[in-house]
Design a protein that fits this description.
By secondary structure, the chain is α/β, with parallel strands linked by helices. It has three domains: 60 residues, Nucleic acid-binding proteins (OB fold (Dihydrolipoamide Acetyltransferase, E2P)), CATH 2.40.50.140; 139 residues, P-loop containing nucleotide triphosphate hydrolases (Rossmann fold); 62 residues, Ribonucleotide Reductase Protein R1, domain 1, CATH 1.10.40.50. Helix content is 25%, strand content 25%. A six-stranded mixed beta sheet has the order 8-7-6-9-13-12, sandwiched between helices. β12 and β13 form a beta hairpin.
Length: 295
């Protein structure tokens, strides 16, 4: 039989088989031998062990359209990347790293800033100006007021979308607005540390409409960019493209004279904060490359 992994917890996988139901499966040892792990979203072959108890083994993983590192999911059409505008305040460096990672894997990004009701219009305008040219579809939402929810629903229609972002930004509450079949557990924001309780502890596919699915995933607070070199980093900053006709080629856009990108930053045409994160990530990647070379 063939099916799709819709949930994975502690080595057990819920595999949905059309017209048959959901089997609880374990992965055969051959996957560990090949250092390959089944992921939520994988299309798999399974062997039934008990039709009565709906238990089975995963015997094969079909070719993947794509596979993400964080969250660990497969076969997605796009990502809904959610950050809060306030409570907690956004970590823009973390956000920029996540944008890079999805771009590196050619995953379209819906960049959603939630909790719009907690900030002033000027705050929204500032964030919009920072990210309007970053190559993502920009969304501003509020679960409390319903602002932007209809637009999100429209963009999700007919696709499999992974939902990602830090803890406490309102992912579960937003997902509850997108589907009516059930309500996910939502946690109150911890006032002491201003961080959300980890209400989502595993990745899971949730149907939200006809041929429309979202993959809810656990939150996180840190991320390391992989698969990108310091020299190739600039290729993922779409804001740089029209200003990259620099005197020196190639140009890192950091220390070379007569750099078009740096001139655009000084003139306010490229957001200063995005550029500063570019420098920080460039140096992280360069330092990591040096360490790997010396080992």
């Amino acid at each position: 039989m063939q099916g799709r992994i819709v949930k994975g917890v502690a080595g057990f996988y819920d595999v949905y088989v059309e017209n048959a139901g959901t089997y609880v499966c374990k992965a055969k040892g051959i996957f560990r031998k090949d250092n390959k792990k089944p992921l939520v979203g994988d299309y798999v072959t399974i062997q039934s062990l008990s039709e009565q108890d709906m238990e089975g083994n995963i015997t094969g993983i079909l070719p993947r359209q794509n596979a993400l590192i964080r969250p660990q999911v497969a076969n997605v059409d796009q990502t809904l990347l959610i950050f809060a505008l306030k409570s907690p305040l956004p970590n823009y460096l973390l956000l920029d790293k996540l944008i890079l990672q999805y771009k590196q894997q050619d995953i379209p990004i819906l960049l959603c800033f939630n909790k719009e009701d907690l900030v002033e219009d000027a705050d929204v305008s500032r964030v919009r100006s920072m990210y309007e040219k970053c190559g993502c579809t920009l969304l501003f939402t509020s679960v409390k007021s319903g602002e932007g929810i209809a637009e999100v629903k429209s963009l999700l229609k007919g696709k499999t979308t992974t939902v990602a972002g830090p803890s406490g930004v309102g992912k579960s509450s937003l997902i509850n607005c997108l589907q009516t079949d059930r309500e996910m557990e939502t946690g109150d924001l911890s006032r002491k540390v201003s961080r959300g309780k980890h209400t989502t502890r595993h990745s899971e596919i949730i149907p939200v409409g006809n041929e429309t699915y979202i993959m809810d995933t656990p939150g996180f607070t840190s991320y390391d960019v992989t698969g990108i070199t310091c020299d190739g980093l600039q290729d993922y900053y779409t804001e740089f493209a029209e200003y990259a006709d620099c005197y020196f080629q190639p140009c890192s856009h950091i220390h070379e004279p007569d750099c078009g990108v740096r001139a655009a930053v000084d003139a306010g045409r490229i957001p200063q904060e995005r550029y500063e994160h570019y420098i920080e990530i460039y140096r992280e990647l360069k330092e990591r490359a040096k360490r790997n070379h010396s080992e």
